[in-house]
Write a structure and sequence with these properties.
Chain lengths: 411, 474
């Protein structure tokens, strides 16, 4: 196709896993990445009338998004994000109500289990701080837990409880957002990998696909999760994002109600080396569980090479599940998977304008991007189109919280 | 609990014709060998050993060849462990760790090299009514005849349908077991010229083919060549089967259907697909070739995969039958040992023979081409994924909305996320993608992850602890 001397007059056919799919030569906004963040940005841009073109290298929601446990809640996130997170959660709740909930939105509530005195102290602090911000969360005793989570019979001293934390099915939520974005005027292509950014007179002017096709655009949004910094580096922008390996295990289907809530550990802090536990029962009945204790090293290139869960992770995850839910200690393991999250130095997204005209970013999920996706999509669409979809106070907060330049001007 | 641990130079996964030959060859070269198989006795599917006394199969050449191969491997010093299902494999310093479910206990096998001879599995293709009780795989039917009570449990007429030479082998098993076979439905109508040409090139196979034809006639079954089953009919179980002739375009002519009544068993087989779970999990490259049963492990003439010290033999490399499997096992087992420094065997002769055996298999495959598309329209509510209750319409909608590879269909519909891990529905999903214009080459395959089959958590834990110690020891 390249080197043929002539451009195809109506756009170039791309070999992307389907026959006869053509890419346009031009779009107002291009979104690079078809995970939940890119899809939500495409939806918000389309709703703002920008008719975006979303380009996904493989399958929509197939990488970081699909590997997510997709919790939607404010509990135990950064307190400074509370207001925007509250809005983020409301957007998911509203989306479920508006669409008839085809993506298993389930406001099941979240338990933060407390195993020792330090944990109890941290839990008390979390609850006090969040309640001061207006959150609906509280401390519960083991006796109360017997009602809230009957099979959680392990040796816990108590728990935090946030009754309105929800989960969504990560695949179906991505599928729903894709379908809404298309209905609102977005185009989306899967198996359409972007290789490079086009720069003209110092301004990003579009993308070059792996097959050589060039697509021009006024704006390009990088929403490529742990691959984002690779794309930005093509135009000399060094982003402080690091891939971090995360993983999960799933058991064979268990009786509905075996685990009722999201069962999680009190997070001690953000950043690359934080440990965590999350256990929940999926709509399918499978128990999804993972426990990371301390740092699991993510070697160079692991993102594109490592597909398998580390043995040490399997041990800590099985031990934690068996400790908390002794009745599940003997069930069969069915599946496991690995994903790579994009981690920023302060565990917050980078969302907004990059120091190159025409280039925007929405990445840095830090392992909990699902919750923020719809809110960030609206924030970014407002910044790009000048038609804000967030209230002015929230927009100002989001600008300060997610400013891509907050770690010093990247160059 | 802790896992039992064993170590060896060469671990062979699978004790069928390929695995046993690989174990013999590596052990003969002086390597210490452990050969693992999920079944209770060595032999694999081809040489499956009868479990009942006085079985009509006890003296068949396949059964005897399996016993012989197992004895040879054992005599050469290979340790054959049956009832040992490999549920994971991982690279560890100096080799691999295989995690094994050995009748409910964990076994960790550390090996410097691994030969995967995991064989093949049936490729079930959906058609209306295919999930009714009484509809079984042709391979499953053969297994029932060869083992257990040696009979099919269902009363009523028996229909054997599908395509390929294996169908003839199953008919032969009916004849040998004395089990009545009422109808034989073969999709293809292989041309006389094609058959003559193939057997002119491979006269040594004529006798075998004539026996198969004679035994099919001996069953007394009504033979329907150029027909396919278009529907299994029944309320709670299969009661009748509808068949139709294929027209020139390979589609059933629905104006000329015939109904077979009072059916108790419909055994269906559209051929086999290579078992590639362990080789995909270990990251080896795989290729697609319809004539070899679809996605298969890539290997050079010695059986070396794209992963150092990981070898493959038999039908993991592509469907071809027992003869090339046995030869490729001998070559790969010897090569695996030689790569570790044991004396190399002269493999010129088996290499020549394996080329010839594969050429015959390819010729047969060309006469019975694997159906790439579903020849039938499926109603939207036809079940495709039994584990997760996913219907044909769900899959078609997902493809239309943007699921354009096997993995994407799995994530958007859950087809393949249940206990069978896609073994039953995979071919149906691939056929649906092919029908939507996405050939299997592009739709790709789902790489296997821990565990290759569901395994109780304590057993996984024990095996992973052993693997972890191998990974981290100084």
């Amino acid at each position: 196709m390249r080197g043929s001397g002539r451009r195809h007059p109506r756009g170039s056919a791309a070999r992307i896993g389907r026959c006869d799919v053509t890419l346009p030569e031009r779009a107002e906004v291009i979104v690079v990445g078809g995970g939940i963040v890119g899809l939500a940005a495409a939806l918000a841009l389309a709703e703002a009338g920008a008719a975006p073109l979303l380009l996904e290298a493989r399958s929509f929601g197939g990488a970081v998004t699909g590997g997510s446990l997709a919790a939607i809640g404010t509990h135990m996130h950064g307190l400074e994000e509370y207001a925007v997170m509250d809005e983020a959660c409301a957007l998911w709740r509203d989306l479920a109500a508006r669409t008839g909930n085809p993506f298993e939105y389930n406001p099941q509530g979240q338990i933060g289990f407390l195993l020792d005195a330090d944990g109890v102290e941290a839990g008390e602090r979390w609850v006090a701080d969040e309640r001061a911000l207006g959150a609906d969360c509280r401390l519960v005793t083991p006796a109360e837990l017997a009602e809230i989570e009957p099979n959680l019979t392990g040796p816990i001293l108590g728990a935090t409880f946030a009754p309105d934390t929800a989960t969504v099915n990560p695949f179906l939520a991505a599928r729903t957002v894709l379908s809404l974005a298309r209905a609102a005027g977005a185009s989306a292509r899967d198996h359409a990998p972007v290789a490079d950014l086009l720069v003209e007179a110092g301004r990003v002017a579009g993308v070059r696909m792996e097959n050589g096709t060039e697509i021009r655009a006024e704006h390009v949004v990088l929403a490529s999760g742990p691959w984002t910094q690779d794309v930005s580096a093509r135009v000399g922008i060094d982003l402080p994002l690091v891939p971090r390996q995360a993983q999960c295990l799933a058991t064979l289907r268990q009786r509905p109600g075996t685990i009722r809530r999201i069962v999680s550990a009190v997070e001690s802090g953000g950043g690359v080396d934080s440990g965590y536990t999350q256990i929940q029962q999926a709509g399918s009945g499978q128990i999804l569980f993972n426990t990371v204790v301390g740092l699991i090293e993510t070697p160079e290139g692991a993102r594109d090479r490592i597909n398998e869960v580390p043995s040490g992770f399997v041990l800590t995850s099985i031990d934690t599940l068996s400790l908390l839910f002794p009745s599940l200690a003997g069930v069969p393991l069915l599946r496991s998977w690995v994903r790579f999250e994009a981690v920023s130095p302060d565990a917050r997204f980078l969302a907004g304008r990059l120091p190159r005209d025409g280039l925007w970013i929405c990445a840095g999920d830090n392992g909990s991007g699902y919750c923020r996706a719809l809110m960030l999509g609206r924030f970014l669409a407002g910044e790009i189109t000048g038609q804000p979809a967030l209230a002015p106070a929230l927009r100002a907060e989001a600008r300060a919280l997610y400013d891509p330049d907050r770690f010093g001007r990247a160059a | 609990m802790t896992a039992e641990r064993l170590s060896c130079d060469v671990a062979v996964v699978g004790a069928g014709p390929a695995g046993l030959a690989a174990a013999s060859a590596a052990a003969t070269a002086g390597a210490s060998v452990i050969c693992l198989d999920a079944f209770g006795q060595p032999g694999g599917q081809y040489a499956m050993q009868p479990t009942q006394a006085g079985s009509a199969f006890a003296e068949t050449s396949a059964v005897l060849s399996g016993q012989d191969a197992a004895q040879q491997a054992a005599a050469a010093g290979a340790k054959i462990l049956c009832g040992a299902e490999v549920f994971w494999g991982a690279p560890v310093p100096g080799g691999f760790c295989l995690s094994v479910n050995r009748q409910g206990s964990a076994l960790a096998v550390e090996a410097r090299a691994v030969v995967v001879a995991a064989g093949a599995m049936e490729r079930p293709l959906p058609f209306p009514g295919w999930t009714l009780p009484g509809v079984i795989g042709a391979g499953a039917a053969q297994r029932m005849l060869k083992t257990g009570s040696g009979a099919l449990p269902m009363t009523g007429s028996t229909v054997l349908a599908g395509s390929g030479p294996f169908l003839l082998a199953v008919a032969q098993s009916f004849a040998r077991a004395g089990q009545p076979l009422d109808h034989f439905v073969e999709m293809q109508r292989p041309s006389l010229t094609g058959l003559t040409g193939l057997f002119m090139r491979h006269p040594d196979r004529v006798f075998e083919a004539m026996r198969l034809g004679r035994d099919l006639r001996g069953t007394g079954a009504t033979r329907h060549f150029g027909h396919i089953v278009t529907r299994a009919i029944g309320r709670d179980r299969v009661e009748a089967v509808e068949i139709a002739p294929l027209d020139g375009s390979g589609r059933p002519d629905m104006s000329r259907t015939t109904r077979i009544e009072r059916v108790g068993t419909l055994a269906v087989g559209y051929g086999f697909q290579p078992v590639i779970d362990l080789t995909t999990a270990l990251g080896a490259a795989h290729d697609f070739d319809a004539a070899l049963g679809g996605w298969h492990c890539r290997a050079d003439d010695d059986g070396a995969t794209t992963i150092p010290n990981l070898w493959a033999a038999g039908e993991t490399l592509g469907i071809g039958g027992a003869a090339p499997a046995q030869l490729s096992g001998r070559i790969a087992g010897g090569a695996a040992a030689a790569a570790l420094g044991f004396p190399a065997d002269d493999t010129a002769e088996p290499r020549k023979r394996v080329r010839r055996a594969r050429a015959f298999a390819a010729g047969l495959a060309a006469l019975f081409p694997m159906p790439r598309h579903l020849p039938l329209e499926l109603p939207d509510d036809e079940l495709i994924c039994r584990c997760e209750d996913i219907r044909a319409g769900d899959i078609a909608t997902a493809i239309a909305e943007g699921a354009h590879e096997s993995f994407a269909v799995k994530t958007w519909t859950r087809a393949g996320m249940g206990p069978c891990q896609g073994r039953i529905c995979g071919a149906g999903v691939a056929a649906a993608l092919a029908r939507a214009g996405i050939p299997s080459e592009t739709a790709s395959y789902n790489r296997a992850h821990l565990p290759l089959r569901p395994v109780p958590l304590p057993l996984v834990r024990d095996a992973m602890e052993a693997q972890n110690q191998m990974e981290t020891r100084a």
